[in-house]
Amino acid sequence: MRLIPPLLLAAVLAMPAVSAEGNQWWRVLTQEVERLYREGDHEAAAAVASKALEEVEAEQGANHPDVATCLNNLALVRSAQGEFEAAEPLYRRSVQILEKSLGPRHPDLATGLHNLGSLQKALRRFDEADALYRRALQIRERALGGNDPLTQATRAALLELRNRPGSHAAGR
């Protein structure tokens, strides 16, 4: 089960790192995670994503935006494996790092919020998913504009959530 559209996956896995210092070995590992994920080898992708996270934490420290990128990538792989409970703290930590390091209006934060919202939707926590999608949409509309594909993807995810059978959110 895919939690996010391929366009968002590509944006997340290719999310540029903020820094340019250090040996950047983790970037090579992240490219390998992307390749393995696209090939459907989620077990190998998870192992490589864990190694990338370990490398970037050692290089940049635990609260750097590059760590958030690796956390998000590992969470995407865990979600693809159906390991939603394992993915959730990874997404939450990623969002926390991004908000603290990049600020509450950064588009990368919106990506993390969108992905966490998708996870909450998969876990049937619809109210939390709605709130996360709304916040991601607000950030993306301000930062990227209403016609940006990422903004449109978040808007579509929110509408899909609200239009699901049994939803009481249609009037929001």
Topology of this structure?
Blueprint (H helix, E strand, L loop, with lengths): L5 H8 L11 H14 L3 H19 L4 H16 L3 H19 L4 H16 L3 H19 L4 H14 L10
Family: Belongs to the kinesin light chain family.
InterPro entries: Kinesin_light, TPR-like_helical_dom_sf, TPR_rpt
Subcellular location: Cytoplasm, Cytoskeleton
Task: Note down, in words, how this protein is organized.
The structure is a single chain. The protein has a single domain (6-162), classed as Alpha Horseshoe (Serine Threonine Protein Phosphatase 5, Tetratricopeptide repeat). It is globular and about 45 Å long. Helices cover 73% and strands 0% of the residues. The protein is built from eight helices and no strands. Mean pLDDT is 88; it is low at 1-20. The chain is mainly α and 172 residues long. The chain has helices spanning 6-13, 25-38, 42-60, 65-80, 84-102, 107-122, 126-144, 149-162. This is Tetratricopeptide repeat protein. Keywords: Coiled coil, Cytoplasm, Cytoskeleton, Microtubule, Motor protein, Repeat, Signal, TPR repeat. InterPro entries: Kinesin_light, TPR-like_helical_dom_sf, TPR_rpt. Belongs to the kinesin light chain family. It is found in: Cytoplasm, Cytoskeleton.
Entry summary:
The protein is mainly α and 172 residues long.
Number of domains: 1
Query: How does the helix and strand content classify structurally?
Result: mainly alpha
Helix content: over 70%
Strand elements, count: 0
Q: What gyration radius follows from the Cα positions, in whole Å?
A: 15 Å
Average the pLDDT over all residues and give the rounded result. 88
Characterize the biggest β-sheet.
none
**Large-scale geometry:** globular
Quote the CATH topology. Serine Threonine Protein Phosphatase 5, Tetratricopeptide repeat
Provide the CATH architecture: Alpha Horseshoe
Low-confidence stretches: 1-20
Note the gap between the termini.
27 Å
Q: How are helices and strands ordered from N to C?
A: HHHHHHHH
CATH class value: Mainly Alpha
Determine the number of helices (DSSP H or I, runs of at least 4 residues).
8
InterPro entries: Kinesin_light, TPR-like_helical_dom_sf, TPR_rpt
Organism: Chitinimonas lacunae
Pfam families: TPR_12
Signal peptide: 1-20
